[in-house]
Prior knowledge:
This protein has helices at 3-68, 78-90, 114-125, 158-161, 169-174, 199-250, 266-290, and strands spanning 97-102, 132-138, 141-151, 188-197. The chain is of the alpha+beta class. α6 (199-250) packs parallel to α7 (266-290). It is rod-shaped. The protein starts with a helix and ends with a helix.
Amino acid sequence: xxxxxxxxxxxxxxxxxxxxxxxxxxxxxxxxxxxxxxxxxxxxxxxxxxxxxxxxxxxxxxxxxxxxxxxxxxxxxxxxxxxxxxxxxxxxxxxxxxxxxxxxxxxxxxxxxxxxxxxxxxxxxxxxxxxxxxxxxxxxxxxxxxxxxxxxxxxxxxxxxxxxxxxxxxxxxxxxxxxxxxxxxxxxxxxxxxxxxxxxxxxxxxxxxxxxxxxxxxxxxxxxxxxxxxxxxxxxxxxxxxxxxxxxxxxxxxxxxxxxxxxxxxxxxxxxxxxxxxxxxxxxxxxxxxx
Length: 291
């Protein structure tokens, strides 16, 4: 095995060993960045939902107040308006979801599923918890969910949700299922849940990771080729010439020409030493012959 092959094997081993931790750290950072991006997107959705609820309470409901005395309009309910607007968004982006999951809802579509009920119960167990974030598999692929508790903090909400007898007859007619009663002040009755797809950010992170690895391998191959050329012309070629000179001298051929000295590095110094050694050896032999 010649010197160049040994050097290449050493460099390849060093690169392979260094590549493993670099790849692990890069992948971890890219995945973390993708999750942070999705969480930020989920928070924007949640803030949008809260803005819709506030708009309904502050601007829509006062305009509908005269009509609400005679009939029940679900458009005046903050949860209804936020859900309807996000349902419109889902027509073109079904992977994004928003739900005000409730354990005992007035509108049956808000009833919490098993995994949503687990989130609500988690908020009920820990009243100090203000946000839950996690991942789950959906029919449309992996998704990140972000959830905030729904807490009865306004006594006005209890006007429709204390007992069926005190609720507006129009609301009972609109939702004959009989749910949504028995709520209490400061009680957590549900959770706002938004789901954002993870597939696109994860795919982008994977593509960036692959591009990074290919770039690193490409740069290493380029550096390896450049080092091979440098070693060939700067080290190996002069060493081979010196080896050939020494071989010829060992066979009694003292007429071999000096190896050209280029530069002032260690290889050049070694070449000069070999040339002087040849001259000294030839001179010594001539002196012996004259004696």
